[in-house]
From TrEMBL:
Pfam families: 2-Hacid_dh_C (PF02826)
Similarity comment: family membership: Belongs to the D-isomer specific 2-hydroxyacid dehydrogenase family.
Alphabetized PROSITE patterns for the sequence: D_2_HYDROXYACID_DH_2, D_2_HYDROXYACID_DH_3
Protein keywords: NAD, Oxidoreductase
Stated name of the protein: Glycerate dehydrogenase
Coiled coil stretches, renumbered: none
Amino acid sequence: MGSRPVAVFALYQHLVADIFPDDLLARLDAVVDLDPTVVLTDVDAGRDLLRTADILLTGWGCPRLDAAALADAPNLRAAIHAAGSVKHHATPELFAAGVTVSSAAEVNVRPVAEYTVAAIVLAAKRTVQRAAAYRDGSGGPGEYPTGEDSGLYGNTIGVVGASRIGRVVLRMLAGYDVDCLVYDPYLTEDDARELGAEPVDLDTLCRRSDIVTLHAPDLPETYRMVDARRIGMLRDGAILINTARGALVDTEALVPHCVTGRIDAVLDVTDPEPLPAGHPLLELDNVLVTPHLAGNRGRELRRFGEFAVSEVERLISGQPLRGRVDPADLARMA
């Protein structure tokens, strides 16, 4: 690349200002040529942009960078992703062409972990049910039913997936009076113990946990890993939390268990996503469904921009990239 490489945004136009506010655009302007008013979201309509690009600053809305796109991108050297997963746009052809791919996934870890732990605490208090009862005129302040199955104290929490997020969740839970189990086929027993958790197989985790929280990637082998059989293993009163990928859970198998009130759920992701209007899980007082908001949102989006800009600066100065994606690891990534 020359002294002033050309960078092109490849993400939804309406997100540019939130991810790359003026101070970050100024940092980019110091090292690359970039028109922030022009974005690439369609390969056919953006071929002229591709022909000029040395660096793509990608994000949600980036088109698939396949052989057809690369044919019009002779100078492309790097695709710096100002978001998490690169699976939607980073193709085998992109890596084969020698394009460096970076992801800002690491800056999405903390907010998802914080959301998860908050969901664990609130769900253990049966907050959604209690709020609904209060709204309907019952269960007011000061009412303490005898033997109520609520509260976090003494719970066993099963963490499925020792991903970056799963590991932070485990470390955060170390500050609570809970016992932790963990299932991850790639995790050693010593690593699990270091994280403060007992390593177990998935069936055992489902049987023993009061709360199960999912942090596994969406892979063929994890598709509906929480299926009808394993949902049936959960104890009466258990809570299922999913802030990972909707496809990890058999949604329709979950429905009858929640409808009867046998188990509760907090679902930030679903399959399908979004759930269709009128779906039973959207109507229940013991289920909280949120619109995939656990990760960076609002003012937090600039975290993605800060990371991406720093990656561009490192790239230009010849330093190693913090978020470089190894294609050999892509199959196991979220």
